[in-house]
Every structure is written in C-alpha cells, then in structure tokens.
Amino acid sequence: MARIKTAVLFSGRGSNLQALIDAAAKTDFPAEIIQVISNVPGAGGLVRATTAGIPTKTIDHRSFKRRTAFEEALNAELLDAGIELICLAGFMRLLTRTFVDRWHNRIINIHPSLLPSYKGLRTHERVLEDGVRFSGCTVHFVGAELDAGPIIMQAVVPVKADDNPAILAARVLRAEHLCYPSALRLVAEGKARVVGSKVELTNISTPEPILINPEVGLPNKSGKAASP
Ligand code: GAR
Asked: What's the CATH code, domain 109-204?
C-alpha cells in the first residue's frame, strides 16, 4: 500500500503532532509523516519528531521580510521532500491565498471549536463567556479564509458549569487527539473528498444519539424521541 507522504506544520508544544506521529507509526496507517516543520525555533514539538526519527526543519517566519518569502521557503522545502499532504497542527501563521491555492485541497487543519463558530484565538474563553453547552474540535480542509474550509470531522464535548478555559481546553484537546488521526486516515484513504464547498464521505457511519446538556429532567436518556 502506498502511503500518502505527509508533512506536519506546527508552532508550539505539538501534542496533535504527537497524536499524528503515534497513529502513523503503524505501518498499515495510510499516511506516512516524512517531514515536520516548525516556524518557531525551539518549539516543543521538534523534540517529539526527532524522538520518532522524523526529519525536522525550522523555518523562522521572523527571518523573512515578507510573508510571501516565508511561504516560498516553506513551499520549496515541501516540494523537495516530495510532500503530498500537509497537516497543520497548531500552526499559528496565516497562509496566503497563493499558498493555499498551490496546495489546493491538500492542506488540512485542526481547530479547537465547532466551526464555523469560534474561529480565531481565545476559543475556550469565548465559549465560556457565551455560556454555550457544547464545544469541540473540527478538522477541515484549509481555505483562504481563517479557520474556514470544507469540514471533514468534528468531535463534541460538553461544557461544564465549573469549567475554566484551561479545563475546557484540556477536554477539547483530548477530543483533538482522537479526531485528527481519524480524519487524516479518511483523507489519506480517499474517503473524504471535497465536492463543491463540502466534504463528501464514503463508507462511514454516523452516530445516532441526541446529546442534551444539561441532562436533568429528561424522560429517558436513550436519545430516542417519542413517536411522531
Ligand atoms: C490545538 O488546540 C489546536 O487545535 C490549536 O492549537 C493547539 C495546538 O496544540 N490550533 C488552532 O487554534 C488553529 N487555529 P498542540 O501544539 O498541543 O497540538
């Protein structure tokens, strides 16, 4: 089986990078991580990749005068490594339309909210400020706009009454670590394909239950509604 040659781009501690590395360590996983690139010198995730024996590269965006020059360097590195698919895993740089177009439908990203809600930064703070009952994460193909593009997979977590941003972030992060490898598998197997502005999935099952938060006073917890 030919495995999709994948690069992971990141900027920080790299826990999602680790989840992808762990999944791809199995030889039957349809994607192989062959390049890891950070735009931040000394980012924690670099050690994770090195430990796994994956080549790393740091391309510090601050050493380029223009965003386009940074992206040229990034692009050259990716082409040089023969990359077919890019995973953004906490990569905190906006990519220009030119770069995204070059890698059309070959860049995926994870974001710690249920997109299209809560794009951008401070997601957990804003979720708590708004008092919404569920949050989660989204894996999506990258479009030219910030945290937008066809959605591949989402995971939902409850927001609890005594949450603070750190507690909620940790709960969402656990969901991210489950979601990202699964979404990458779908893409690498060709089971998640962009059609128009959406992702079409093949051979997948959809969960049945209705989730209600808070759960108090429900007639039954099976998630089955009364007959119409
Ligand atoms: C993750 O929560 C990821 O969803 C988020 O950055 C964090 C990186 O953590 N990405 C974004 O906010 C992108 N808009 P990690 O370095 O431990 O994977």
From this structure: 3.40.50.170
